[in-house]
Design goal:
The complex is a heterodimer of chains A (about 325) and B (about 280).
Chain A lengths: L61 H30 L4 H9 L2 H34 L5 H9 L6 H12 L4 H8 L8 H12 L1 H14 L2 H8 L4 H30 L2 H7 L9 H10 L3 H34 L8
Chain B lengths: L12 H28 L3 H8 L2 H34 L5 H7 L2 H4 L2 H12 L6 H4 L10 H26 L2 H9 L4 H30 L4 H4 L10 H10 L3 H33 L1
Helix pairs in contact in B: 1-13, 2-13, 3-8, 3-10, 6-8, 8-10, 9-10, 10-13, 12-13
The chains are: A mainly alpha (about 325), B mainly alpha (about 280).
């Protein structure tokens, strides 16, 4: 569907000169015809471009636009901007010195940061390998049960994180068969980093695979087939053709997966046993500080997690066009 | 989209598929099956006594109710935001568009922490509700608020692409045929936006059903009042009543799988109409 074909271009965008004094809501809509457009330059536009010019059947009355834009700013402001600002305001309420010492002076907090920085990459790496394998099979081949596999990949998204944690408790509990056997042989899984990794990997599994499948499908197998016919080995083909072709989609999936892995709370909470200075990840530590009524410290650590989320979003915005390019510019396709 | 290549033409089919299936089985399927098996180790009476007590029913009803209300609120808020982002230009539009994704990237614990502190009596936003006699933090309203936050991106992101792809000609045709703007919206645009709206609603609803991290901060977690179902699983776990915890988890899994099936069905249907 080519939706952009005839949107907005023939008519000049309706200009809404922004007035001083904050009474722009009362500004009457300027008429589109009064704006000379012979220069070929678009007049400065405030509200209205992208929906055809004024008088086009797709433009809404000015008061509707102002109302909806105002509502949108209000919704995003109250739901998202104020909470974000509040995190940093409360973290630094007692000054930057206290903020810094809240982050680095407490050994348990330091350990939580360390633990998160170990567990998230391991879980992400596991899911990258699993995700590539699944995406390769699903995007390149047809086999019985393919649709089932596609559905199963999304399964962890619809399981409550608490349940995701519970299943590992049930398996690795000292009274469970496997848990008992591992315990007898000296392996501590539950209430230890291995269980944290498993629970995190469970919850974040879908991210990489579901980003890769559409990219792999869009790129198409032609270049790989060509490389194969020229005698490339499996690994050569993978590293020299496939990975360069899907690198932005892969990076995108990794970034989203990592953000969720570092921020995961419910699943990790259940399997961690919440042992201070041993199995507390950053989000768990935030809760413990908050329960201990140490609000500035809780918010200091929360602000680090918030910065991580913001960096994730910035990377996401930067990478998104590249992923779209990767999907939109496939190798010449052989029609079936 | 390619229709798949011959298994002899490209390498890696068997190793890729078997690794993916083994990984998925070990990480997801066998653990979930273990949970169901644990719940099945109870007799039917024991299962009901564990998963269908008045306290458990109150928890399910609360989880269901707050998720439903939050998802409905998100339908309204999300449609307004999606419409504005697709149809209008305004300063800071790209920033607003990027900010919509914050709830997906922000750890739920941070969301819960900051919402709880914003809506207490002395909080930035709670101070305005306090004179009205509304207590937001540590009440059911607080749970709804934080679920609106975590579910917010879903409705926006499902409506946005459909709205952007609507053909201009359809609206022009409606106008030429004499429809007013409001008539066009109600009779032409709205029906086309219905499938993605329902999908977005279902996604936000599903997210709310399982949400724990953010809710635990802003809820007082009192049984029969503000105790959500995932909380109940944890209460049972902490009593080392594993089978009972698994029973409650099984009921929760039943809810979410039903919803997952519904979402898949809706997505297939909406693709047929729009794509």
């Amino acid at each position: 569907m080519s939706a952009d074909r005839d949107r907005g271009e023939p008519n000049p965008p309706a200009p809404f000169p922004k007035k001083e004094g904050g009474d722009e809501l009362a500004a009457p809509p300027a008429r589109a015809e009064t704006v000379p457009n012979s220069t070929g330059l678009s007049p400065p536009s405030f509200l209205g471009k992208g929906a055809g010019g004024l008088g086009s059947p797709r433009s809404d009355p000015w008061y509707v636009r102002y109302l909806l834009v105002g509502l949108t700013l209000g919704i995003v402001g109250i739901l998202i901007v104020i909470p974000l600002a509040s995190v940093f305001a409360q973290a630094t309420a007692k000054g930057l010195g206290v903020y810094w010492s809240n982050l680095v002076a407490n050994p348990d907090t330091r350990h939580a940061v360390f633990l998160t920085l170990v567990i998230a990459p391991v879980a992400v790496a596991m899911n990258v390998v699993g995700g590539i394998a699944a995406a390769w099979a699903i995007a390149r081949f047809r086999f019985p049960g393919r649709a089932v596999l596609v559905t199963l990949i999304d399964l962890p998204f619809s399981v409550s994180p608490v349940v995701a944690g519970l299943v590992f408790v049930l398996i690795f509990a000292p009274r469970a068969p496997l848990g008992a056997w591992l315990f007898d042989h000296g392996y501590q899984v539950l209430f230890a980093p291995p269980a944290l990794v498993l629970a995190t990997a469970f919850v974040t599994f879908p991210f990489v695979a579901r980003e890769l499948i559409p990219v792999l499908e869009a790129v198409g197998p032609e270049e790989e087939l060509a490389a194969r016919s020229l005698g490339a080995s499996g690994w050569q083909l993978f590293w020299r053709i496939t990975v360069p072709n899907i690198k932005w989609g892969l990076l995108y999936g990794v970034i989203l997966c990592n953000a969720r892995a570092m921020g995961e709370f419910g699943a990790v909470y259940v399997v961690s046993g919440r042992i201070e200075g041993q199995t507390d990840t950053m989000p768990l530590r935030v809760q413990k500080l908050w329960e201990g009524a140490d609000n500035p410290a809780a918010f200091a650590l929360a602000s680090v997690l918030t910065m991580l989320a913001l960096v994730t979003l910035i990377l996401k915005v930067l990478i998104e066009p590249k992923v779209r390019e990767e999907q939109a510019a496939p190798a010449p396709q052989v029609s079936e | 989209m390619s229709a798949g290549v011959s298994r002899r033409a490209l390498p890696g089919f068997r190793i890729g598929l078997s690794y993916a299936v083994a990984y998925l089985a070990l990480l997801v399927l066998i653990p979930l099956a273990a949970c169901l098996a644990k719940a099945a180790s109870l007799s039917p009476e024991e299962f009901l006594a564990a998963a269908w007590t008045p306290r458990a029913r109150a928890a399910y009803a609360l989880t269901f109710g707050v998720s439903l209300i939050a998802a409905l609120i998100n339908v309204v808020l999300g449609s307004i935001v999606a419409w504005t982002l697709v149809r209008y230009e305004f300063p800071g539009k790209r920033l607003v568009d990027a900010l919509v994704d914050v709830p997906l990237a922000l750890p739920t614990a941070v969301a819960g922490l900051v919402y709880a502190s914003l809506y207490v009596k002395t909080g930035w936003l709670g101070q305005f509700l306090e004179p009205l006699g509304i207590q937001a933090a540590y009440s059911r309203l607080g749970i709804v608020l934080v679920l609106v936050f975590t579910g917010f991106p879903f409705v926006v992101r499902t409506i946005q692409p459909v709205l952007a792809d609507l053909d201009a000609e359809i609206e022009e045709a409606a106008a030429i045929l004499g429809a007013g703007r409001w008539q066009t919206f109600r009779r032409v645009i709205l029906p086309m936006l219905l499938p993605p709206t329902i999908t977005g609603f279902a996604l936000a609803f599903a997210r709310g059903l399982g949400e724990y991290g953010s809710v635990v901060f802003i809820s007082s977690n009192k049984m029969f009042e503000t105790e959500i179902a995932p909380m109940l699983v944890l209460v049972r776990l902490e009593e080392y009543a594993y089978a009972e915890a698994a029973a409650v988890a099984t009921v929760l899994l039943g809810f979410s799988f039903t919803l997952l099936a519904a979402i898949n069905y809706l997505e297939r249907r909406s693709k047929r109409y729009v794509g």
